[in-house]
Amino acid sequence: MRRQFLPTKKQLITAITIATVGFVLFGYHKTHAAFIQDCKPNSIIVCGTPNATDFISKVQAGGPKHDLQAVYARFGLEPGEYDQFVTNSVAGVAKQDGTIVVKGRVVATNAWSIGRTHFSYATPYTINGKTYYKAMTSRVLQQDLPVMVMFNSKGVMKFAVMNACGNPVAATLVRPKLSCDLLNKSEVSGMPNTFDFTTNASAANGAVVKRVTYDFGDGSTAESATSLTKTVRHTFSKPGTWTVRVTVTVNLPGGGTTTVTSANCQTTVTVAQPFFQCVSLEPFTVDKEKRQFRFIVTTHQGNGATLQNADFNFGDGETATAVGLTNETTVETEHTFATDGNFAVTATVHFNTVNGGVEDVSCATNVSLTPTATPPPPPPPPPQELTNTGPGTGSTIGLFAVTSTVAGLGYKYFVLKKTRS
Fold first, then answer.
1. How many helices (H) does the chain have, and how many strands (E)?
2. Which of 133, 143, 249, 417 could be 122's S-S partner, Cβ–Cβ 3.0 to 4.6 Å?
3. Average pLDDT of the segment spanning 51-77
């Protein structure tokens, strides 16, 4: 029968202790896995610093040699900027090729740093009477190392320090380049007082366009996200001369932003006062007996005003509304009057103006219709001249003979009657 092994009390305590230490060490390793520690004598801060808060705490304490504030001030971090460093510093990488990269952007080149050890490739560097040793990071670094970087308001690296050792880093600074080069303007065909705008601008060395903002000068603005080439269209609704400006907002290394514009990134737009008038309303007879007329409205407009339609009031209780265009300057309609009379005919003409406005103008004419007079009877025809047809009762001589005979008989009658009496 196998005898069961039971640990002694001392063995249990030892096992628990080992497990606890292992757990603590494992937790410490996990906590500090974000940076590499350099605990060699060359380190300005031995074993380095994991984050900005820890770094500033150690700087304010001064370190074992009481020189940390002076060292970092020489490299651009003043005591009054400690809080700013804690809040605004960002993580980057000091690479073996001598560049410093933040979020994929190269912010410095030809980097160098100082340490406390004199290597063969290092040269003396004095701060407040103490000697340190300067060397190119391309000679010092055995691998790429994390750095903490603080930028100024223009996106230029102001201060950088390696997490692993606390050694400050200086370099040839890469300065973001940004410019607003030109504001382009073009009129939109068929759309009065309407223009398309685009912008020519550049952003380089870590600068990236964030948005493009147009100020049209008439109280309205527009944004075009991050695109310089996207067309922004605007219709000016008020007459006058307007100055249009464009401003380019740029993201900078380190998370800051800035804006840029220039004299070339502004232009002027002149908007004339719209004009519109009803020139005439003319009646034309189509059928007089039926009292049928055609009415033609003639207009004149421009500077953004266009003819929309017209309403007619014929003065006899009848109307016609929203009569469409015959062409760009005329509207016409027909109307038949039911009775005679005098009629005041009016036309109310509607004009489109810029920005969706509508203006009305009226003009008028008169139509007079009177009853048709009954024509007088035709005059009697003139006496017809008798045609000479020769001897006989139908001839002139015959007629004369008959007349003479009648006259003779009448004479004898009156004479004889008088003699007898």
1. 6, 23
2. 133
3. 96
